[in-house]
Amino acid sequence: MRVCEISGCVKKVKARGMCTKHYEQWRAEQPAPPCKIDGCGRRVWARGVCNAHYQRLRNGADMVKPITPHGRLGEFCDVPDCMREPIARGLCTPHWQRAHGRSAATGPVRPYRPRGQATARSTADLIEDIEWLIESGEPDVWSRLGLDCKPLTLVRRLYRAGRPDLGVIIERQALSRVAAA
Question: Where are the domains of the chain?
Answer without folding.
Answer: 1-30, 34-67, 75-104, 120-181
